[in-house]
Structure formats: structure tokens, C-alpha cells
Amino acid sequence: MSADFWAGYISGALGIIIGNPLDLIKVRLQANSSAPGSAGPRQFTRFESTTSLVRGAAAPILGYGALNALLFVSYNRSLMLLDNSLTDPTNPENCALYKLWLAGALGGIASWTVSSPTEFIKCRAQLDARHGVSSWTVARDIVRSRGWRGLYFAGGITCARDSIGYGFYFWSYEYCKRLMSSYGYEDANGLPLNVLLCGGIAGVVTWASVFPLDVIKTRLQANTIDAYAEARPLLRSQANRPAMNSFELAREVYRTEGFKAFYRGLGVCSLRAFIVNAAQWATYEWLMRYFQNPTWNGPLKDIS
């Protein structure tokens, strides 16, 4: 397979390994309802055991590796279609920024085929308080109760989140690199500081642009856990509710909890996004250099 596929796969899997504990906290904060009669935010500071911090990681490690691979391959190919003069999509210095956004959005739509079931399984595994719950048991439960199509529950809002988010992801990464270059920034001692910084900023910008959509997605998926509600204080307030679509849920959240509910957990998510995406971009850029020139074994120098 192509170099960008494997570079994307490995960097994506690495990002999940690094960021899963903070992602678990983010998902629990999003799923929590502070409306009257709900369990309250304090429930989300309690973890059943230390293994809770890695709960739901198996599906993303496998799925997000494939997702990231598909994302970068689709982005690179889309960018070359949008700009015929571009010969190397990994170095789009002269490409218009709006084309980068469009290519990222197309890449997000393509990666949705993997991200939608992966996100659903991960969300359910992270929120389920039963002992011994894993990504595999959650996947079996979903298929048994909802069929294979059930893995794509809340797929519409997930697709919107991915297309908009990844549009800003690639746009902000390249814009940050160009901005730093315009100020004459150069790597110190050959260290990939520009890649780490731009990658981290791109991650924060991405999540800030789509966080309300991600909250709605998480709430929709959390509402599907309707059995054993008494053993699940995190979701007790959401049990036995009639199914709602994205717009109905958004209206209810705004009516009962206010605008701030759409940004609950953004601080934790931003911290995770900066760390994970700094590592992912540095890994991706290093691997692309290595795959394109296997004899190269130097630092990420002059990569921007």
C-alpha cells in the first residue's frame, strides 16, 4: 500500500494510545446532564478502577488507525484533484487554503465509513459501568439488538462533524506552518518544533470548530444504553426517554442546560487534542520522509 496509508495508520493508532484516558473523561463530561433531576457532574469524576482509563480503547486503536490512513489517503488524492498543478500533496506550499479545507472535508466524509461505527462502540464502552465491558462485547450487543446497520447510529451527525472538523484540521495545520514561515521561524537544532506546535494547534482548532456537534453525537449514542439504568448513574437521567433526532436533542439540551452544555469538556478535549495531534503530525511527517527515502535517518529538519 501507499506510504501515506501506513504513515496515517501508525500515527493514528499512536494518537489513540496517547489520548484515550483524556478522551474517556471528555466523553463522560459530554454525556452528563446537569438538568434538574440528573445525576450531576460529580458522577463523572468517579472511575470504577484504573482499567477504566483504557476502556473503549481497543476499537479506536484498530479503527482509528484505519480511519487516519483512509483520511490522509483521501485528503492527498482529493487535493491533487482540486489542484492539478500540485505534484506533492504532502507539501502544498502554493495551494490555495480553501482547497485544503475542501480536500480535508472530502477526506472526513471518506473516513466516516470507519469513524461512525468506531465512535459508537467507543462511546458505549466508555459510558457502560458494568464490570467486564469491552469494545468487543459492546459491538456484539449493538449488532444483536440493532443489526449491522445499528453500528452507524447517529451517522449523520458524525459525518457532519468529521467533514467540517477535518476541513479545519488540514486548513489550520498548513495555515499555521505558513504563518510561522512568514515570520522566519526555523527549527532549533533540527527538532520538529514547528510540526509539533502546528499539529497541536490544528487539533485544538478542529475540536473547537465542531465540539457542539460532538456533544450531540455523544448524547445520542449515550441514550441507546437503556438497560440496567439503575446500575449506571452516568446515564440514569437519560434512560427510558423516547428516541430523539439530532435537532430535537439539541433543542432539549439548550432548553434544559443552556448554551454552555454544548462546550462541556472542551478544556479536557483541547488538552488531549494538542498532545495527540502534535504527536500524530510529527509521526506522520517522519514516516512519510522515511517511506519516501528509506536511507534517510535524520531529524524532521526543514519539514515546513
Quick structural overview:
64% of the residues lie in helices and 0% in strands. It is mostly helical and 304 residues long.
Tell me about this structure.
The chain has 304 residues and is an all-alpha fold. The chain is built from eight helices and no strands. Mean pLDDT is 80; it is low at 36-54 and 227-240.
Outline the biggest β-sheet.
none
Mean pLDDT comes to 80
**Helical residue percent band:** 55-70%
Strand content: under 5%
By DSSP (H or I, 4+ residues per run), the number of helices equals 8
Outline: globular
For the structure shown, list the relevant keywords.
single chain; 304 residues; mainly alpha; 8 helices; globular
Secondary structure layout plus pairing:
Blueprint lengths: L2 H29 L26 H25 L14 H31 L7 H12 L8 H28 L10 H30 L23 H12 L8 H27 L12
Helix pairs in contact: 1-2, 1-8, 2-3, 3-4, 3-5, 5-6, 6-8
